[in-house]
Amino acid sequence: MFKSSWSSPSNIAVMKYWGKYGLQLPRNPSLSFTLSASVSHTTVTCIPNIGKGNHVNIEFYLDKEPNEKFGSRISKWLDTLTLEFPFLNDFTLHIETSNTFPHSSGIASSASGLSALALCLCDLQEQISGIAFERVEFYKRASTVARLGSGSASRSVFPFMSVWGFSPDVPDSSDEYAIAIEPLDVFRTYHDAILIVNPKEKSVSSSVGHSLMEGNPFAEARYKQANDHLALLLNAMDKSDVHAFGKIAEQEALTLHALMMCSDPSFILMKGNTLLMIDKIRSFRKDTSIPAYFTLDAGPNVHLLYPQEYSSEVHQFIETELRSLCHNGFIIWDKVGSGPSRL
Predict the structure, then answer these.
(1) Packing angle of the helix pair 242-261, 219-238 (nearest 10 deg)
(2) Same domain for 247 and 264
């Protein structure tokens, strides 16, 4: 019997990707902060099969309860990986996973969950084969495997910040896997207060949203904008220009939701309190000149990004102006983190 346990974080994309081609490849590059508090803990135990079947056999548990919906998705993903991981045909995988945050509500639980599982698979391959990869190659491989399950998961296997998708402005970048980038200190200590407007599962999956980009009349303009934005974002980071960085982050978030609203069929994931929070954040920034900027994933919840040095002022603002707009006052206090860890 073989066993592997990993903890892997979610991430929040500052530069968004929206639209895919081929086998889970991005139409444009993305850049994300790796988080520290929003994580998935996953354990995989390999139990020898009595006989081989046509599919990978799994037993999947989310928060200690069987979950057929997620188990079915993971089973289909694993069926595509049998050439990469031949041992999958020889074992039943008993998978236990749990999150420190609400799943499927727009906080990229697929990123943390599937990156943790990809890391377990790469670890198990080393155990079973007796052959260890160089660490750089190990994480590159884990990122590639994670991408096949969830594009954003490719970014979660690296600390601090990462880029996924080829860009001429980022050496060694690739559509196949993400790469780590080394931010300056101000960005390594960024905070992300996740303001939970609605903890429930979002009404439209990200997979459906990505597919609708194929018929979106603004798709090509968006892909050009994304590449332009990435160049500007990297320049802002090189200069430690937190206001330029935040401005692009907000433009990216609003563009993402605008693309959802003009797809066919269209859909709106923001809620009334999402918009109220955005208005209050902008007013706070105008009044104080503090570089607190919002971003959004594909959901209604607001991520408020700000440098460490302003944490006291921003926390006071959140408590007095924003907590009442959160579902039952629910806030996840997160920050940039050091990536996954083997448990």
Answers:
(1) 160
(2) yes
How many Å apart are CA 298 and CA 11, to the nearest integer?
13
CATH of the domain at 165: 3.30.230.10
Residue with tokens 């052959």: 131
Statement to judge: residues 255 and 323 lie in one domain = yes
d(CA 104, CA 200): 7
Q: Checking phi first, is residue 326 left (phi over 0); if not, alpha (psi -120 to 50) or beta?
A: beta
Whether the link from the prior residue into 168 is cis, omega within 30° of 0, is: no
CA distance 215 to 240: 38
The bridge status of strand 2-15 relative to strand 30-48 is antiparallel
Inter-axis angle of helices 68-79 and 109-129, to 10 degrees?
50
Between vectors from CA 227 to CA 303 and to CA 151, what angle results, nearest 5°? Answer: 60
Whole-number Å distance between alpha carbons of 220 and 18: 11
Q: Are residues 192 and 177 in the same domain?
A: no
Which residues constitute the domain of residue 84? 2-182
If you search the block for the tokens 């200069």, which residue do you land on?
A: 239
DSSP per residue, 93-129: EEEEEEESS-TTSSS-HHHHHHHHHHHHHHHHHHHHH
Q: Judge if pTM exceeds 0.85.
A: yes
Percent of the chain with pLDDT over 90: 90
How many angstroms separate the CA atoms of 118 and 44, rounded? Answer: 10
In this structure, the answer to whether residues 165 and 29 fall within a common structural domain is yes
CA distance 7 to 227: 32
81-125: pLDDT as tens digits: 999 999 999 999 999 999 988 765 556 578 999 999 999 999 999
Q: How far is CA 31 from CA 100, 183, 202, in A?
A: 23, 11, 23
Q: Is 244 exposed, middle or buried (0-12, 13-18, 19+ CB in 10 A)?
A: middle
From 258, 332, 273, 297, select the one nearest 155 (Cα to Cα): 297
- Overall domain count for the chain: 2
Task: Give strand pairing partners of 195.
Answer: 302, 331
